């Protein structure tokens, strides 16, 4: 009996050592993260009931990054259409991304800008931090030079522009200048921009600031396509790009210790599924996406720095 116990102990110890060694090799493979906190700005620019899927796109991504630890205090959500309260909604107070799926608009969701508040001006103010003095803290992105920032845009767009509520346009030049201003003001460490619209590759043409990785659901000459039609609701409830990237997140990125790479994320919606070609711009991003963890942008950094200096709490510090 004692011999059996000893053998089991040795086997368990060997497995633990092997697992530790494997984890060390995985950690050594990936680039060391240089950030200490994460922020996300998720924007639906479309209004009207028939654009239900654009609201669902944002809420789907919102739940993914919250599951991976990014708190509401570090997420700015902008929804131009209030789908759950739309009088045409046969299931009031709900929003789904699949027929018979889970309600995305649950009790703990926080929307920071809604309806007429979703404008080009407010979007740029959020990214640059140039708010009026009365803007509450909860509606500001308080990022710094150690922040990894995720920006997700969904709605209707064309070559070089994204429509905001069929009334305004954010041009690719506007977006490029905004990101440049963020860089000059030390508003990010690294940034990941996702444009999920028709002809969305054109939206990052003028993003030249360093350490920015960009992707799109379609090339400049292509449309983007919707996915699931919910016959009870009467409209499409999600776009193809969001659906397949969400599948990847749910299956391959189940925790902060996931070894899924950004390259795998970029490859998670091939043309055979998206029906459009995913675009990528990485010429001003100096890391290899195969060596960057998905959780560097979609998860919450828990990187602590320790120091031994004595702190005088009664000083001006």
Automatic annotation (TrEMBL):
One of its GO terms (biological process) is GPI anchor biosynthetic process. The keyword Signal applies. GO terms for cellular component: GPI-anchor transamidase complex. GO terms for molecular function: GPI-anchor transamidase activity. The keyword Signal applies. Pathway: Glycolipid biosynthesis; glycosylphosphatidylinositol-anchor biosynthesis. Residues 1-16 form the signal peptide. Keywords: GPI-anchor biosynthesis, Signal. InterPro entries: GPI_transamidase, Peptidase_C13. PANTHER family: GPI-ANCHOR TRANSAMIDASE. Belongs to the peptidase C13 family. This is GPI-anchor transamidase.
């Amino acid at each position: 009996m004692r011999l059996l116990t000893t053998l089991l102990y040795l086997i368990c110890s060997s497995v633990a050592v092997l697992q530790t060694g494997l984890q060390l090799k995985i950690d050594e493979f990936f680039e060391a993260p240089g950030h200490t906190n994460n922020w996300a700005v998720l924007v639906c620019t479309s209004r009207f009931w028939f654009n239900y899927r654009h609201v669902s796109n944002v809420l789907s991504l919102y739940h993914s990054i919250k599951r991976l630890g990014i708190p509401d205090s570090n997420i700015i959500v902008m929804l131009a259409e209030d789908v759950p309260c739309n009088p045409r909604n046969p299931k009031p107070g709900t929003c789904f991304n699949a027929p018979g799926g889970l309600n995305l608009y649950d009790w703990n969701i926080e929307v920071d800008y809604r309806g007429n508040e979703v404008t080009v001006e407010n979007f740029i103010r959020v990214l640059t931090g140039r708010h009026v003095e009365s803007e509450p803290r909860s509606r500001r992105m308080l990022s710094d030079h150690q922040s990894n920032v995720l920006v997700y845009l969904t709605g209707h767009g064309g070559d070089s522009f994204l429509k905001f509520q069929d009334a305004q346009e954010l041009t690719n030049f506007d977006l490029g200048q905004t990101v440049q201003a963020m860089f000059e003001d030390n508003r990010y460490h690294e940034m990941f921009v996702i444009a999920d619209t028709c002809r969305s590759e054109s939206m990052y043409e003028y993003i030249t600031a360093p350490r920015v990785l960009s992707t799109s659901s379609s090339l400049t000459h292509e449309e983007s396509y919707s996915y699931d039609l919910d016959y009870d609701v009467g409209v499409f409830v999600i776009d193809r790009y969001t659906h397949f990237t969400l599948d990847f997140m749910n299956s391959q990125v189940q925790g902060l210790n996931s070894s899924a790479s950004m390259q795998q994320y970029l490859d998670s919606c091939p043309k055979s599924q998206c029906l459009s070609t995913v675009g990528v711009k990485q010429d001003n991003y100096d890391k290899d996406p195969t060596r960057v963890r998905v959780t560097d942008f979609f998860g919450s950094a828990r990187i602590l720095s320790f120091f031994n200096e004595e702190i005088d709490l009664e000083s001006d510090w």
